[in-house]
Amino acid sequence: MSSVNFLEKLLGGVSVEWMPLSDFSSVLRGKRLTKSQLSENADFPVYHGGLDPLGYYTEFNRPANTVMIINVGASAGTVGYSFSKFWSSDGCYCLKHNSLINNRYLYFSLIGFQDFLRSRVRVAGIPTLDAKVINSIKIPIPCPDNPKKSLEIQAEIVRILDAMTAHTAELTAELTAELTARKKQYDYYRDKLLSFEEGAVEWKSMREIGEFIRGKRFTKADYVEKGIPVIHYGEIYTRYGAFTDRTFSQVRSDMEKTLRYAKNGDVVITDVGETVEDVGKAVAWLGDEDVAIHDHCYAFRHTMNPKFVAYCMQKNSFIAEKAKYVARTKVNTLLINGFSKIKIPVPSLEVQARIVTILDKFDALTNSITEGLPREIELRQKQYAYYRDLLLSFPAAQAA
Q1: Which of 374, 269, 353 is nearest to 314 (CA)?
Q2: Residues 189, 362 contacting (CB under 8 angstroms)
Q3: Ranges of the chain with pLDDT below 50
C-alpha cells in the first residue's frame, strides 16, 4: 500500500489543515470520588490514573464515546476511549469538542501522540500531565471549511481503523490463547521430565549440592553505559528467563573491588520480590566473564548443569515448597537457611543435558521475544501501529 496514493484517493484533492487541539476541543478535568462512594454493584465505571476502572458509581459525568487522557500516576499520558457512560475522576482528562471532528478519529489521532504526551509528564512527586500540553497538539483536519466532507473522510478512516483494531484484537487473543496453552503444555512436560520415579535418582538438598554466595549492593546511580556487567535482583523476575549469557545493566568500573560476582555456571537467585513467586526466582549465568550481583541476590555455586538447576527451580512443586521459606513482611524475603534445605533430583550429567535440550526448545517457543508466539504477537501489534499511522500521516505539502 502506498501511503501517498491511498491518502490522495481518500482526500479527493481536498486540503488538510493541522489544527491545535484547543481550536476545536476543551480539556475537561474530572471530579474525585472517595472510596466509600464506590461500589462494585453500581453501573458506571470510574476512571482515575489508569484505563482500568477504579470502581463503579451510581452516576456518570461523561457521555459514551468520549476520549480520555490519564493525567496522573504511572499511566499519565495514556490515551483511552469509552464506548459507555462513565465517571471521570480528577486523574482523568476528557475531551469535549465541536462538530468539526469525529470522536474516534480524534482518539486514533491522539494514540500516535502517546509517546509525546508521556515525555511531557512532570515526574517530581506524583507524575502529572498538564492540560496545556494536550492543547498544543496539532491534529490533521481534512477540508475544515467543508464540515460535511471532512466528517465523511474522518468516518472512512475510522471505519478502516476500527476494522483493523477488531482484527488485530482477534488475532492477538488467538495468539495469546495459544501461548497460554503452550505454556501450560511446557509446565506439564517440564514437571514430568523433572519428576523421577522413587529410587530412580538421588535427591539432594541444595546446600548438599553447592553453596550460596550473597552479592554486594549497588544502586541505579552507579549505572553506566559501559562498565562492569551486573544483574540486579529486580531484573531477574522482569527481564530474564531461565538462563542468560548477557546482562541488561552495567556499573562503574571503579567499583570492581567492592562487588561480588557470579561465575559461569552459577545460578543467580533473588531473595526479595513483590510476590511469593518472584522471591527465589533463578537465572543460570552462562556468560564467559564473571558478573556482579546485587546484595538481594545469591549466586548458587555447584557442579551440576546450570540450566537443569534453573529448570528444577521452575517446577510447580519446587515453587510450592519454596513458599514455606518466604517471610511475608512488607517486602517478601527469602529465608535462605530454609530454602537451602529444598531437595532437587541429581541424575547423571548426561541425563541432565538430555532434559535441558528438550526444555530449551519449549523455553524458546514460549518465552523468547525473538522466537515463537510472543514474537508473533509483537509483530501483529507493530503491523497495526504501522497502518494506523499510515492512515493518519497526511502529505506534508497539504499540512497548513
Answers
A1: 269
A2: yes
A3: 1-2, 396-400
Side chain identity at residue 146, one-letter code: N
Number of Cα atoms under 13 Å in the Cβ half of residue 206: 27
Per-residue cell: 241: 528467563
Which pLDDT tens digit goes with each residue over 180-227?
888 888 889 999 999 988 888 999 999 999 999 999 999 989 999 999
Please compute Rg for the chain using Cα positions.
27
Closest CA relative to residue 87, chosen from 123, 59, 108: 59
DSSP letter string, 325-381: GEEESSSEEE-HHHHTT-EEEE--HHHHHHHHHHHHHHHHHHH-SSSHHHHHHHHHH
Q: Where are the alpha helices (DSSP H) in 201-315?
A: 206-209, 233-236, 306-312
Q: Where are the alpha helices (DSSP H) in the chain?
A: 3-11, 103-111, 114-119, 131-135, 147-193, 206-209, 233-236, 306-312, 316-322, 336-339, 349-367, 372-392
Between CA 364 and CA 238 the distance in angstroms is: 17
Task: Count CB-CB contacts under 10 A for residue 18.
Answer: 14
CA atoms within 13 A on the CB side of 356: 17
Specify the pairing of strand 66-70 against strand 79-82.
antiparallel
Which pLDDT does position 126 carry in this prediction? 86
Three-state DSSP class for residue 2: coil
125-164 CB burial, b ≥16 within 10 A, e <16 = eebebeeebbeebebbbbbbeeeeebbebbeebbebbeeb
- Tell me if 252 sits within 8 A of 292, measured CB to CB: no
Predicted local confidence at residue 330, as pLDDT: 80
Distance CA 353, CA 226 (A): 34
